[in-house]
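cache lookup: miss for this entity combination. No prior model stored, computing from scratch. Input as submitted by user K.M.:
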Amino acid sequence: MNKIFEIPLYPYTRSPDQDAAAPVRRKVVVVGAGPVGLAAAIDLAQQGVEVVVLDDNDKVSFGSRAICFAKRPLEILDRLGCGEPMVQKGVQWNVGKVFFDDRQVYEFNLLPEDGHRRPAFINLQQYYFEEYLVNRVRELQAVGAPIELRGGNKVLSAEDKGDHVALSVDTPEGEYALEADWLIACDGAGSPIRQMMGLDFVGRVFEDNFLIADVIMEADFPTERWFWFDPPFNRGQSALLHKQPDGVWRIDLQLGWDIDKDEEKKPENVIPRLKAMLGDEVKFDLEWVSIYTFQCRRMEKFRHGRVIFAGDAAHQVSPFGARGANSGLQDTDNLCWKLKLVIEGQAPETLLDSYDAERIHGADENILNSSRSTDFITPKSEISRIFRDAVLDLSEQVAFARPLVNSGRLSVPCTYDGSPLNGPDCNAMPARTRPGSPAIDAPVQGGWLLSQLGGGFRLLTIDADAPEVLEEGGIAATRLALSAGDTPELADRYLGDALSAVYLIRPDQHVAARWERYDEAAVRAALNTATGRA
Amino acid sequence: MSTLNTAPNIARPDDFYAALLAAHEGLSKAESDALNARLVLILSNHVGDMEVLEEALALARPRG
Ligand SMILES: Cc1cc2nc3c(=O)[nH]c(=O)nc-3n(C[C@H](O)[C@H](O)[C@H](O)COP(=O)(O)OP(=O)(O)OC[C@H]3O[C@@H](n4cnc5c(N)ncnc54)[C@H](O)[C@@H]3O)c2cc1C
């Protein structure tokens, strides 16, 4: 049987752009059809912005790569029309076990909060995720949305000309020139665009390698996350076992620094390691093996004139905490509505600088979290190992030590505190929905809050009056009127001690500002602030 | 806002000191290091207050 990642999903076909007398100008060109590039393209096309995606490959990600998707990215994918297949196919889990040496030290249950449409996490192979995104592209094309996906199109050069970007693209039938008003570079960690432009990529390279293996087995390991510190089968290192759909298990084995990558990757070396871990009697097939040297770093700026970087091209984190793909989706969520407003002349170009401010804040938070996990998992000094082992020892006996165990802090969305787009706050209301935070889901009459918010600027009113539509400088905020009596979660998450509330919510579902009552002048001012027009 | 108590606070200082040494008796250097680390963690959790802990960390750093 062919695996989905072996089938060309968007094979090269000739585009009329290749035969044009002069380079054709496109509104937005996205380089890279990885998860981030595809998400960006879908987001723009859904909003009616013309977009062309170029990728030198024509298949989804080889091997599972990112496997753990958090709630916020799933909510973003709901808005992009592909959350449902993800959750249908994905494996849900809540229980984790932590092992130290030869014993289990404790077990935890994530106990996700009730009253959310989406689970805290699902596990799903990256190739399925990309397949669903490609399916969504096809769906949009079928209804005439302005989106094109060109496989076998390798970008050779990109040059910012001030009012557009000039590209040269290689194909199996030769090179052609293409122009873009805006270029979104989602060309991965090795980003050729970043290199062509001579841009920095600074940070910390961790001196460590991980063997990442996907194995297919018929074992009845439960659907849990198992993490080992210093186990007998991988002395002095760590290991992780995590379930994916189709009986595929992800195994991460830390290898240390001084290794021969090609040697370690050979099945005759991998299989004995896995046998030592899983037990001799367990039958398994190796689906994919890779060696991953991770790093934590980011570009100093994500926007460079008309070229905007997103996903791994802009920042990289260690795999602990599943932040790579998850944070890339938050990048495009943040970028696309802003780019649309700029393209349509409703907001100044400087609005795009808030993408820099907000997503660099997000990247720094991710890098901080994953660096801390790495320091716990692979202690860098004798004393840090002594403390690490002390924490693990104590965690077996006493509860207080368990929160100190850091085997990866799972990705949570970033709150854009201090963002230039934030408007007034209201102190009586809960901190978790303050300006800058992503709106928190809640059950409401007839469904879920986030589905009802959708995209676009919204005025969420809870027991407060407001007009159905407020228009300011060509941008409309439409009202979603709810009542505290609808569900206890809504009141708990949005009212706090206030009796009523008016929230201005951005198209990426982040809170822009909030008040107890509607005040037209204040809402207009906040709408201008949130669109960089203040 | 609480602050670190740097005034004498242990009723019978000699007894405490003896108990501290006794806890380490017969341990190898590695075992003693591990005990100290566990003790720091246990006491830090008991204190809990991050401001007090930061003051304590600063006080414990070598003077220089
Ligand atoms: C071996 C490996 C293991 C990983 N494991 C994990 C994990 O366990 N957990 C986790 O969270 N993350 C993991 N990641 C990271 C995760 O896969 C990434 O965060 C995610 O794929 C980022 O998506 P992206 O779209 O930014 O980049 P990518 O998925 O890398 O996509 C970049 C795309 O750009 C295309 N491209 C590049 N150059 C050009 C060019 N010149 N012209 C046209 N197209 C071009 C490439 O073909 C590719 O399709 C792993 C990555 C790798 C490589």
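stored under new cache key. The pocket of flavin-adenine dinucleotide is lined by residues A 31-37, 54-57, 61, 65-67, 126, 154-155, 186-188, 192, 212, 290, 292, 311-313, 319, 322, 324-325, 328 (CB under 6 Å).
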